[in-house]
Amino acid sequence: MSLAPNLPIMTSRQAYDDADALIRVFGAEAGIEAAERADIARSRGNHLHFCHWRQIERMIIILSVDQSIGTVH
To answer: Which residues of 20-47 are buried (b: 16+ CB within 10 A; e: fewer)?
Structure first.
């Protein structure tokens, strides 16, 4: 089974930078921090930031895997 359909879409450089910053600051807890930020955005009714931080949460998981995922060219 391929993981490619479940990979996050990087919509901007800012998305990568946010994921990288959380990893540098929070280490193994970076995904939890992203999830908490998404929950805060949802509770405030900010669907754009909610989606952004959920995307970052998924990207952190992908960045933490120590192997190639999906198609490699």
So the answer is: eebbeeeeeebbebbeebbeebeeeeee
